[in-house]
Predict the structure.
Amino acid sequence: MESTMQVRFTFDDDLMEKNGYERENVYYTIKKHFQQKRLKCISEDENLIFADTGNENDYGNMWVIIMGLVKSDWFDKCASSCVFVEDGEIEDVLIQIPKLKQMMD
C-alpha cells in the first residue's frame, strides 16, 4: 500500500548553527516523536520524511506531533520547510506557525 500522508521537513544548517542546534539532535528528536506513534521514516537525508502506515490514527498522530513542534521554542529556529501532504495536496505548516501559535495562546 502506498502512503497517502506524509510530513516532510528540511532544515537550514546555517540557521541551526546560528541558533545553537545540531542537525543530528534535531533529527533524533523529531524521529523519536514519529517512532513513538509508529509512523515510518522514509527519508532522512536532506529531506526528513515520515509517512502514514495505513492506521486510522495516523492523521491525528501526525498532527499531534506537528502541533507539538509548532509549540516548541526551537522548531522554527531550525526548519526551512515543513509540509503536510495528503493525497497529493500540500499544506505548508511553517507559513502557518505565527497564526497557530496565536491560536494556542
User: Anything to note?
Assistant: The beta strands are 5-11, 40-44, 47-51, 79-86, 89-92. The first strand starts at residue 5 and ends at 11. The CA atoms of residues 70 and 100 lie 8 Å apart.
